[in-house]
């Protein structure tokens, strides 16, 4: 495993971090045994950064149980979790959610604590008005938080001012070869590094879009470029080629994914990305841009929908209809509707309430895009046909 230095603390952090948002069994119930095997294998092979969050359903509790089952494991890792500021209405909520996270994680402190999902400078300023700066100082003094940072999902222009608004210890941004100029982007990555901050990268595979879901035309482009046609390896190597990157998080939920990513991280050094690989990325970008229409990463922050619509799955089906053909997109859409599990919720069920819009890190106009999904993947009478089918099967 390669390690990079946290310039603020001097910590040696594994270039590959374990993202715990998509553990085995999630988003329903974490499969603790499978998760434990993955975590132990990762740590045994040098991974020393685990990233979770209060709002990742079951993730913190699963990690806490694994720490309890394996004495000494907690001391081998740097643990990161996040404060759900969307839930914080008063200063008392800061303590409430940190305490709950620590209880779930069965630990007294975390090395890296993030203000979760800052979307603008004004979002942070509102937290300041609630007294978060004083609270952070108190928690650091009490030893419950070692370092404070934030995860960012806002526009590029507000990132640098946010960096300068407080004495941050680190930051976390979305970054991959499709997002060089999206959110913080390359400019934000460099701005954070110039200020001496370690930068943690999320979504290096864009929620799987640069991995198994890579469009066939993009995969062909990689093969024709004469390089290893493994899209995961290419995407991770592209991110790790940047010396400003400290840790790349990957949401691994299978042994083969873990093995693949560890193998890549072992040899992905800054400046090691070849001209051939760079050319392949450009070809892949062009092919993907022609296929993916809605920039959803599948994070699920928009859920639950009041009407039961599985928004990320609807968007995934829509994108698949361009990448792999309308028939496959339609198949995925029927699955996304819940028809196979006895309950049908289609894009047409959206009532434009807007509850999802303010929660989307990608700033997608979700109601408008659900209407787009409906126009492409729903045919006349489809809701009635699916609901009749569900009743028929249930008999």
Protein model, in words:
This protein is an alpha/beta fold. It folds into 2 domains: 3-289, TIM Barrel (Alpha-Beta Barrel), CATH 3.20.20; 311-394, no CATH class. It is 43% helix and 12% strand. The chain has helices at residues 32-44, 59-69, 91-105, 121-129, 132-142, 159-163, 185-194, 216-224, 231-240, 255-267, 275-289, 311-323, 326-336, 366-377, 382-394; strands at residues 3-5, 12-14, 16-19, 49-51, 78-83, 110-118, 145-152, 170-174, 199-202, 247-250. It has an 8-stranded parallel beta barrel with strand order 3-4-5-6-7-8-9-10, surrounded by 6 helices. A two-stranded antiparallel ribbon has the order 1-2. The longest helix has 15 residues, at 91-105. The model has no long low-confidence stretch (mean pLDDT 90).
Helix content: 40-55%
The CATH superfamily of the largest domain is NADP-dependent oxidoreductase domain
Mean of pLDDT: 90
Strand residue percentage: 5-15%
Q: Provide the CATH topology of the largest domain.
A: TIM Barrel
CATH architecture of the largest domain: Alpha-Beta Barrel
Rg on CA atoms, Å: 21 Å
The domain tally reads 2
Q: DSSP helix count?
A: 15
Strand arrangement, largest sheet?
A: 3-4-5-6-7-8-9-10
Distance between the termini: 55 Å
**What's the β-strand tally?**
10
- Look at the helices and sheets and give the structural class: alpha/beta
- The CATH class of the largest domain, by name, is Alpha Beta
General shape: globular
Biggest β-sheet strands, sense, barrel:
8 strands, parallel, barrel
- Unreliable segments of 5+ consecutive residues: none
H-E order: EEEHEHEHEHHEHEHEHHEHHHHHH
As an assembly, this protein is single chain
